[in-house]
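Database export, one record per block. Field names are fixed; values are copied verbatim from the stored entry.
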Amino acid sequence: MPRRRADFSRVYFPLTLTIILFAAFWPLRDKPLEVQGFGDMHPYLQFAAYAALIFLLVRLIDALVFDVVVSRRQVAMPQLLRGIISIVLYIILFGSAFSTIFRIDLRSALTGGAVVAAVLALALQDTLGNLFAGIALHMEETYEIGDVVHSGDHMGVVEGVSWRATRLRGFNNQLVVVPNSVIARERLEIFPRHNLNARIISVGIDYNAAPATVIGILTQVATHVDGVARERPCLARVSSFGDSAVIYEIKYFTRDYSGRDRIDADIRKAVWYALRRNGISIPFPIRSFQPYSPPTGEHQVTPEEIFRRLRAVDVLEPISDQGLQTISAAVQMHFYSKGEAILRHGTAGDSMFVVHVGSVGVRVPDDSLTGWHQVAELGPGTVFGEMALLTGEMRTADVVAMTDVVALELGKESLHPIMAVHPDLAGAISHQIMLRREHLESLRAADREQEELTLMSRIRSYFGL
């Protein structure tokens, strides 16, 4: 920390004034100096000379103590403390000079002057309020030089704190002087200069861009902007859904909160270029009433892909290609985010699902603290919910997306026409289900053939065969 040089410029004027007044008073101290209507002028001239001397002494003590002695110890003394010490010295020295020169006992005058004291207190209530508020702010170490402070309608960087007011440098380089009593009354928001202060900015992105992709781009962009702290990671998240855009929030941390406007602008500029490189648009705030056809996205599945996916499902193996083409045309495609429930235990259903992209977890309720335990994790090409499709059973487990999932839903309406034309499919499908169960889990105590016959009869009954 560089040593601060002593500033004696504030001493020059009182020194000059003291020399002039003592030069005028000293030759006349033993000579009569009567003015009609005022009497002897010696005390007044002497008090004026000593007043100038008091100003000189107080400012000289301030410069020597704080700019010389204290600065050598590498300690920054608050401006408020210097002001209070100067006021105390002025009161003591002026009171002593006044009582000595005019021969007035100030203690008696103050003791008997309750009315005068009350009048002075009322007249100086704003000044005293600022003084005591400044003392309280200093004792609590509420803020320091360089901190960003937001109080009422005022916001800026603290440049100085005196006994009367706090000086703020606004973000437009304007100087704002806020009385300490106002700061003490208002709600005070402080952004310390050595603290990791958070900041949030918003940006609207095209609805057709996948949130996972956008969040990755925004996070990476904000991390590399100058002024963003590296100690804590940036965060991007979906904030809301607007009329023409998905609103995302970017949360970053900075130690220089006074540079927030510049950092915000740099992040927005970098976001624009990053989105342009990735072919993602920032939509105009326009409401369109004509039919809108979204562009092909990363999860658009063609009819050929659906057919190939269903053809690979073992439960549907007995169905011919022609029948499977009919089923494929009626398949519904669904998108699920990570952690979203696809099926719930105990609910009714008449469809099964085929995982096309991602993975899902199968959870069975129990009496544990979580209320469930996971029994399987299914990836692309696997099916779940087939018993509800084929027999109308209630769902027997919860199925939750472990990642972002694209699933194909096959309903009873699409399978029923084919089963009506080919009733023997019920036996073939039940046989495939039993083979699948043998592979996934051990058989129960009942005989396998009897269980297969029972399953086949339930399928025939459900479809009215």
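Remark 1: Residues 442-447 have pLDDT under 50 and may be disordered.
Remark 2: The first strand starts at residue 34 and ends at 35.
End of record.
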